[in-house]
Amino acid sequence: MTHRWRELLFRPPSLDDIITVLRAWRWWVLMGVLGALLGAAAFWVAPSPYRARAEVVVDYNLEQAVPMGTDRQLFYFLGRENKKLRDLAFSDAVFQRMAEKLGQPVDPAWRTGTLLLREEKDGAWHFWAEAESSQEAQALAAAWAEAFVEVTREKVSVARRIQSLWAGIYALRDQQAALDNGCAIAAKALEVLPQWAEPQTPWEAWRVEEVLAWLDQSGMPLPLTPEGTLGPDAIQAAQAVAQDRLAQCEAVKPQLEQQEQALQEQLDALVPQSGGLSPRTEVVLSQTQDLPVQRVASRTAFILAGALMGVLVAFLLGLFWGGRHHA
């Protein structure tokens, strides 16, 4: 007896068995109908949750963010910024804002199935939310998308503030460089002008004229003769201008350094708040009212899955019974 069952279970089906099963269309129809009924019953007992979708349009303004960039640079920029925004969408800051809108705490476990984020073409981002009721799913999707847009705009605003601070720092550094250059020339003038009171060579005369010409543009005009040339007291006047410039350097340079330090402190405080987002990024809510909602798996999907399962079971049972009959 055991040998017969072992032979029945492990004997491969013959061609006649397969042909017999395939010709038994009534058997296929019966099992398919039974499977469909079981699928419909499963949907009635445990229906799938609802899924709602909100849409947000993301624009990185590539022409401004990466001017004259190569394709490789553009792809790298897009990949980096997409990752930042995706991480932000599931961040604690967005979930906290979402909880404020819903009036209830947000379960961190929603990151692993209840909330889904998909990046579509043309910058459209779809925020999907699943819930037991359609109203709850719509509320979750809308709150998530709105929280994401608000937090993103706040961080982009911080990034723009950081950009303006950097512009101010660079402007101060340019002023410091110009000031250092002017101070160096003034110090050199005080060093060499007494030696060139009476230039001995054409080269020395030319150097004196160059120094005097620069000092003459410093805001304290040098004495001129009626013919419009530098007068004999130009050397002494130039020395006075150079001394005045050095005094200004000593007074202005610490002020510029203090201003740069203040901007740098503001910058250090804002950098963690920006999330590293590009200041050119823009996000717009495209759809948060009357959101499309549907079942994750419809009744039709349950019925079709049950029918296919019934057909598969019919085929396997047919082979088993056919093999048993031949045995």
In short:
The protein has 327 residues and is of the alpha+beta class. The protein has helices at residues 2-10, 15-23, 25-45, 62-65, 71-89, 92-102, 134-192, 202-216, 234-274, 299-326; strands spanning 50-59, 115-119, 124-131, 282-287, 293-295.
Would you write up a description of this structure?
- Helix content is 66%, strand content 10%.
- It has 327 residues and is an alpha+beta fold.
- It has three domains: 15-46 and 299-320, no CATH class; 50-165 and 275-295, EIF_2_alpha (Alpha-Beta Plaits, 2-Layer Sandwich); 166-272, no CATH class.
- Strands 1, 2, 3, 4 and 5 form a five-stranded antiparallel beta sheet that branches.
- Helix 2 packs across helix 10 (299-326) and helix 7 (134-192) runs antiparallel to helix 9.
- The protein is rod-shaped and about 125 Å long.
- The model is unreliable at 323-327 (pLDDT under 50).
Task: Tell me the overall shape.
Answer: rod-shaped
Backbone structural class: alpha+beta
Number of strands: 5
Largest sheet: 5 strands, antiparallel
Count of alpha and pi helical runs: 10
Assigned CATH architecture of the largest domain: 2-Layer Sandwich
> What's the overall average pLDDT, rounded?
77
Ranges where pLDDT stays below 50 over 5 or more residues in a row are 323-327
What percentage of residues falls in helices of 4 or more residues?
55-70%
Instruction: Output the CATH homologous superfamily of the largest domain.
Output: EIF_2_alpha
CATH classification, class level of the largest domain: Alpha Beta
From the 3D structure, determine the CATH topology of the largest domain.
Alpha-Beta Plaits
Give the tally of structural domains: 3
Give the termini distance in whole angstroms.
Answer: 12 Å
- What is the CA-atom radius of gyration, in angstroms? 40 Å
Query: What is the percentage of strand-forming residues?
Result: 5-15%
The helix/strand order is HHHEHHHEEHHHEEH
